[in-house]
Amino acid sequence: MDMTRTALNDHDPFDGDDAERDAIVIDDADADGVTYAESRRGSDVPDQGQLELEERHALRRVAGLSTELQDVTEVEYRSLRLERVVLIGVWTSGTQLDADNSLVELKQLAETAGAMVLEGVTQRRSKPDPATYVGSGKAVELRDIVESTGADTVICDGELTPGQLRQLEEVVKVKVIDRTALILDIFAQHARSREGKAQVELAQLSYLLPRLRGWGDSLSRQGGGAGGGGGNGGVGLRGPGETKIETDRRRINAKMARLRRQLQHMSVARDIKRDKRRTRQVPAVTIAGYTNAGKSSLLNRLTGAGVLVENALFATLDPTVRQARTPDGRAFTLSDTVGFVRHLPHQLVEAFRSTLEEVADADLIVHVVDGSHPDPEQQLASVREVLADIDASDVPELIVINKTDAADSTVLKQLRTRLPGAVEVSARTGQGIDELIDSISGALPQLEREVRALVPYQRGDLVSRVYEEGRILSEKHTESGTALHAWVPEMLANQLDEYATAQI
């Protein structure tokens, strides 16, 4: 099969949106006071997201200036430093357009990691070659492309086995990494919190562990037993290479066990906050979706959270939780999650499982789809696949088509037909945000009981909870206390039963 070169610079489907700071009422999810997002307008003080973005853009890699290792077999013992790369994809199913879109996404991932993409090629095969991923003949052709372009790295659009990595490197004579290693490298660059860094490190070690032998051909191996004919093994003849690999493997296993313990301890604080919200019966809404679909921009638009927004894949990894209110005053939490991507590495899903549990425990998932992407339905399917992996398929879902200001009208028409009930918005311009807020309000769990109570002024805490957790139909201040007519959760209703009255 011939390899097909893919144009990677003519079309960029990943158009990010710069979030403005207009918003509804918000406050920190665990704070008592309420802050208005409108107060950010007119202020010269940059928010946290702007500061992080400036820090991220402060220095950039310059191609050709870094010192690369001459021995690519030692690549597992250092951080990945991608520079001038050639992309290669094996196309086993779907159309040529699907293969091109996948390679364009790989280009975006490589550029997000700091690489300069020089060339991209795809090959049609019934299945990847078990030895070199592309076959021996095409591997030689790939080596010629690498030599002609001056590339120092080949990135494969798939997860390669240790044997495939080793044998392909032997042919092309430069470093070879796969899609999984690339995504892990991006996560390592963008993780900000202590928990996020630990989760990424655990995923990287899980990926690295079975590949120590795949990148260790330059190290000597243990030979056969002394009794074997022609064997070079036996007592005193075992080389240091095997000892080094086994030592590294034990160290990695010990480090992974330590990271799992640390992550378990870190999750306690998040579990306490989550239990507090459950006790107060505050509905939880989670924003999920494909990476670079505009989730953080939407969170900023709805709450003025000020989280980092960048036209890049996986720009934000650490979850952000803010409190918002419906138009009738009911409080709910709104959280942003890590973006998903097709073929999301299972090591990341496992490492981030404790964080992704926020999605499974939510009362509503706001599923953001990039309307400007050439294949938004594929994004939708990829996200739902990950949601199924974390047991979140049964959580109510509200589809939000974002970036309508940049989307093709024909694509939007198709999405309207295939996704009835979806809300169309533009986080950049604010179009459709009011409709989205109304849709979220209508999709929240219904309040369970209607109450009429005369609450004494000494129990102002109950009145405050009714405002926060319920929906007030009428309120009147009397000599004896505050007369309330409201819909509230069952637990709060039980506490108000003591002051129940029929005269309101």
Tell me what the structure shows:
The strands form three sheets. Strands 3-2-9-10-8-11-12-13 form an eight-stranded mixed sheet, sandwiched between helices. It is elongated and about 90 Å long. It has helices at 48-56, 96-112, 136-149, 162-172, 179-190, 194-208, 240-279, 295-303, 346-351, 353-360, 376-389, 409-418, 433-443, 460-469, 490-496, and strands spanning 3-5, 25-28, 35-36, 84-91, 116-124, 153-156, 175-178, 284-289, 320-325, 331-336, 364-370, 397-402, 423-424, 449-455, 471-477, 482-488. It folds into three domains: 26-46 and 281-443, Rossmann fold (3-Layer(aba) Sandwich), CATH 3.40.50.300; 73-258, GTPase HflX, N-terminal domain (Rossmann fold), CATH 3.40.50; 449-499, no CATH class. The protein has 15 helices and 16 strands. Helix 2 (96-112) packs parallel to helix 5 and helix 6 (194-208) packs antiparallel against helix 7. The relative contact order is 0.11. With 504 residues, it is of the alpha/beta class. Strand 11, helix 11 and strand 12 (397-402) form a beta-alpha-beta unit.
Please render the helix and strand layout as text.
Blueprint: E1 3-5, E2 25-28, E3 35-36, H1 48-56, E4 84-91, H2 96-112, E5 116-124, H3 136-149, E6 153-156, H4 162-172, E7 175-178, H5 179-190, H6 194-208, H7 240-279, E8 284-289, H8 295-303, E9 320-325, E10 331-336, H9 346-351, H10 353-360, E11 364-370, H11 376-389, E12 397-402, H12 409-418, E13 423-424, H13 433-443, E14 449-455, H14 460-469, E15 471-477, E16 482-488, H15 490-496
Helix pairs in contact: 2-5, 5-6, 6-7
